[in-house]
From TrEMBL:
<feature type="domain" description="Myb/SANT-like DNA-binding">
    <location>
        <begin position="2"/>
        <end position="90"/>
    </location>
</feature>
<dbReference type="InterPro" id="IPR044822">
    <property type="entry name" value="Myb_DNA-bind_4"/>
</dbReference>
<protein>
    <submittedName>
        <fullName>ZSC29 protein</fullName>
    </submittedName>
</protein>
<dbReference type="Pfam" id="PF13837">
    <property type="entry name" value="Myb_DNA-bind_4"/>
</dbReference>
Amino acid sequence: GKHWTVNEVRALIRIWSDKSIQQQLEGTVRNKRIFEQVAARLQKFGIDRDWKQCRTKYKNLKHEYKSVKSAQDSGSTSRSMKFFNELDAILGHSTMEEASKSDN
């Protein structure tokens, strides 16, 4: 697919930071409907992405965030990413819960 611009990613993160979107995403695995909403909201910003592109970007950002975060937690400062702070604001609170879930 075509490369996401900085503005497109910003818009995606802005929508993602919506509490109701977050709650929906946390509560479900079958999330096509949620990403259809996300895509519709992006459309209002003039950004033409389908739900699959939104979901893929979301997953990639989340994955990248987690690997940077765990590198930082283990004391490495070399890894970083664009939008880390924005994502940390969204994901920073929930990673502890997820970590404890995966431990047992």
